[in-house]
Specification:
Elements lengths: L13 E7 L2 E7 L2 E6 L2 E8 L3 H9 L1 E7 L5 H8 L15 E3 L5 E3 L3 E14 L3 E13 L8 H8 L14 E4 L5 E3 L19 E3 L1
Antiparallel strand pairs: 1-2, 1-5, 3-4, 4-9, 5-8, 6-7, 8-9, 10-11, 10-12
Length: 204
């Protein structure tokens, strides 16, 4: 089976935000879809290791900010390359507003935001799927949405070849650019940055 075939499924990119008390957090996801129109429902899937998933399971509320093509790499680095368990992702970041549900949403480099209340949680393996009722939504701009493909072609920096290439075997994550050093990449290896599996690494 060629798992790369799944890369041809078109999908967008989103900043998923949630709040637990005074703690506001967010992460990058690429799985948001409308489920029904009456009542208006959406579904999202979030890696179980993400702190945001823990908060949503606890509170049942979240916002989705739809990233557009004006976005630059620092947005993805801020919300996708660190854990909210030990990082305040909104520290020194001013490009957000707070929705009626008390959760921040991104207001720059996004074209819309959606607030939702969880109705059901499904354990689908590596991720949780949250099915939720839309409680608020607003169009913020008419900019085109950034797709996963657009991110790889136009936003994500290309990996740099190290000066001492050849001295050690290196494996690079095709998703975020993280480099693993070792003669062999373990089959069960998970990228510590973006949480993608060994199948998303390639030898440099």
């Amino acid at each position: 089976m060629d798992k790369k075939a799944l890369n041809n499924i078109a999908c967008g990119l989103f900043v998923l935000t949630a709040r637990d008390g005074a703690k506001q957090n967010g992460c990058i996801i690429n799985t948001v879809m409308q489920v029904t129109s009456a009542p208006l429902k959406i579904s999202i899937t979030v890696n179980k290791s993400n702190f945001t998933a823990d908060i949503i399971k606890k509170t049942g509320l979240f916002n989705v900010s739809c990233i557009d093509e004006s976005a630059e790499f620092p947005l993805f680095k801020r919300f996708g390359f660190a854990s909210g368990r030990d990082t305040d992702k909104f520290s020194d970041y001013g490009d957000y507003k707070t929705a009626a549900n008390g959760i921040h949403y991104i207001c720059k480099n996004v074209n819309a935001f959606i607030s939702a209340k969880v109705l059901d949680v499904v354990d689908v393996g590596s991720h949780y799927m949250f099915i939720a009722e839309v409680t608020d939504a607003e169009v913020l701009s008419d900019a085109a949405s950034a797709t996963y493909s657009y991110y790889h072609q136009n936003i994500k920096p290309k990996p740099q070849k190290p000066e001492d290439e050849g001295k050690k075997t290196r494996w690079v994550c095709k998703i975020c650019g993280y480099i693993y050093e070792g003669d062999a990449l373990p089959d069960d290896f998970v990228c510590p940055i973006c949480k993608h599996p060994a199948s998303d690494f390639e030898k440099m």
